[in-house]
Each structure stands twice: as C-alpha cells, then as structure tokens.
Specification:
10 strands, about 350 residues, about 15% strand, single chain, Spore Coat Polysaccharide Biosynthesis Protein SpsA, Chain A, ten-stranded mixed beta sheet
C-alpha cells in the first residue's frame, strides 16, 4: 500500500461490545488512501478477538495491543505516532461514521488545513433515537484563518471535547507539546489550542459522525473531569483572550451546585469527592453544608428527582437519556434486583 493520506486512529479499552460496529461503519468507506490504526490499552475482555476478526477482511487495519493500560491521552498519542497518514482522524471506539464521511474528509485534505472539525449527530446509547441532529448549528462549512484562533475557539469549544470530531495534520501533532496534557482526558484540545495554528482550520457543517450518548468509560470520574480538569485546561490557553476564557474560570455557586446535583444523580459525586474537593477548603459554611448534604443524599433519590424535574421543566434530552440509563436510576435498580 502507498503512503496513506488519512489514518483513522482509535484508542480502545474493553470495548468488545462496541468496536465491531465502529469498524463496520469505517471499512466499507476506506480506499488505498486510508489506514486504520487501533491502539488497545491492554483490554481484559474480547476486544482483541473482535478486532482480529476484522483484520481478516481488511488488511489496512494496524492493531497494537499495549502491555499495560496507559490512559486515553497516551493511547491516542501512540496511535498518531504509529500512523503513516498525512492527517489523523481521532475516532472513539464506540461511535459510527456516516456514509461519505471519509470521502468528504479526503476531498478536503489536499487543501492543507491544520485542522478539520467534523460535525456530529447525537443518538442514544443503542442508536434507536436521535438526541440532536447537529452538535454545531451551522449550515455551511466555515474556514478560520491562522489569525482567527479566538473565533475558532468560540465556535467549537463547547463541542470539541468530543475527540471524534478531530482530523489533524500529523506533522503538527508531532511538533507540539503533548505530555503536559496526559491525564486531562482531552489531549487533542491541548494540542490544538496550545498555540496558534500554522494553517487555516475547516469546520464541516454536515454531520458525518454518529455519537453514542452516555457511553463514556469515565463516568465515575466525571465530577473531577468536568468540574476541574476541563475548565483548567481551557483557561490555560494564554493566547486566547481573558474575555473568551473567562467563562471557564470558577463558575458561580448556583451553577456549580446544579452540576454537583447532576453528578450525584449519576454516582460521580459522593462523600469521597466532598472530602477531596470541599471539606478542607476555605469555603463559606453554607457551601460546605450544601455540598455535604448532596453527597449524603441517596443517589437513586437524586436521580429520580432530577429526572422528574427535567422531564417536566427543562426537557434536556441528552441529560435525561444519561440519567435514565444510569445505574442509579430507580427502574434499573428494580431490574437488577429482579423485583
């Protein structure tokens, strides 16, 4: 095979249940210009067997099983290092590419962009219901020049935590600092925004990815990731103006309490998190009491209350779907107990 233009880079860990469907959405679309690089962080399930069954029908799959689990940031970094393509599409191991996704990206690659951001549709975990037709509500493709990093940041920052939207020039990735973003869960965001891009960025309006809602593996760590790691990462990009980054500093108390309630309903916030993040801080007494009260409330009751509120008042489809499929949901508890 000649040197590929595009490497689809997948980091996986214990996803035997999902990665086959992901590969089935990719393989019919690939050409001689495309390879698939899969880095397995030492899965303990049947992921290896599943992937090897697809290698038998697609010789353009390069599968590497690491001897130990290193973390999602390190595994994606390893996948890019092993890739041979000029561009790398960083794809999760449980989402799907829509028809014409690869051909669309290949048509854009020769234009020399530093970054291509691909829009996505959001569906529930079993792909039976559409949650959002488009993550980015734009009708036409948008190009951002090298001097327009802040407009690009403002346009995509609420979406780009989804790594599957990222198609990046491999040389750029290799030249940029990466190790300081290990453990953030969002290495791609650090690579993209640590400094201005050397060439324009393209944002594709048409959704070419189907994102599986509520299926992330780090749900138990969601509190630390979204309350601390994500805002800290975004605020670290010094070349983005203070005004643009201001939203990602410490949020107002009422907004933070709302998030804490959500994480309690999902089981991601408990006394352990309270002791680590709030108990010993120089916070007002009312704040410590409020966060302690949330931590000791039964998660299933918080889940039930929040679901009722959302269904009657807010109607936030993605969050409702996550709560309904969560292990703290009353109906799921009943099913597990066999009542």
């Amino acid at each position: 095979m000649t040197k590929p233009l595009l490497s689809i880079c997948i980091a996986t860990y214990n996803r035997a249940e999902y990665i086959g469907k992901t590969l089935e959405s990719i393989i019919p679309q690939i050409t001689d210009e495309v390879e698939i690089v899969i880095v397995d962080g030492a899965s303990t399930d049947d992921t290896s067997s599943v992937v090897k069954s697809y290698i038998e029908v697609c010789k353009q799959i390069n599968y590497i099983r690491l001897p130990s689990k290193g973390g999602v940031d390190q595994d994606y970094c390893k996948a890019v290092e092993l890739a041979k393509g000029e561009y790398c599409w960083l794809l999760p191991d449980d989402d799907l590419l829509k028809p014409d996704a690869i051909s669309t990206v290949l048509n854009e690659v020769p234009k020399g962009y530093s970054l291509i951001v691909v829009n996505a549709q959001i569906m529930n975990r079993d792909f039976s219901k559409v949650m959002e037709n488009k993550c980015l509500l734009i009708d036409t493709n948008e190009v951002y020049l090298e001097s327009e990093m802040e407009p690009l940041f403002n346009r995509v920052v609420s979406y780009i935590h989804f790594i599957g939207c990222t198609v990046i020039n491999r040389d750029l990735w290799m030249q940029r600092e990466k190790e300081r973003y290990f453990g953030t869960e969002f290495i791609h965001v650090g690579v993209i925004f640590q400094a201005p891009l050397p060439a324009p960025a393209l944002v594709i309006a048409q959704p070419y990815i189907t994102y599986r809602n509520g299926n992330v593996q780090w749900i138990q760590r969601a509190f630390e990731i979204w309350m601390f790691k994500w805002p800290t990462l975004l605020y670290s990009f010094a070349h983005i103006s203070e005004h643009a980054r201001q939203e990602y500093r410490k949020a107002p108390s009422w907004r933070r309490l709302r998030k804490i309630i959500i994480y309690r309903a999902m089981g991601a916030y408990s006394l352990k998190e309270y002791q680590k993040w709030f108990a010993s801080k120089n916070s007002p007494l009312w704040w410590r009491l409020a966060t302690l009260f949330i931590a000791i409330m039964p998660a299933c009751f918080v889940n039930l209350f929040l679901l009722s509120y959302l269904k009657m008042i807010k109607k936030e489809a993605q969050l409702i779907d996550c709560l309904e499929n969560n292990e703290n949901n009353i109906m799921n508890i009943v099913r597990r107990k066999g009542f």
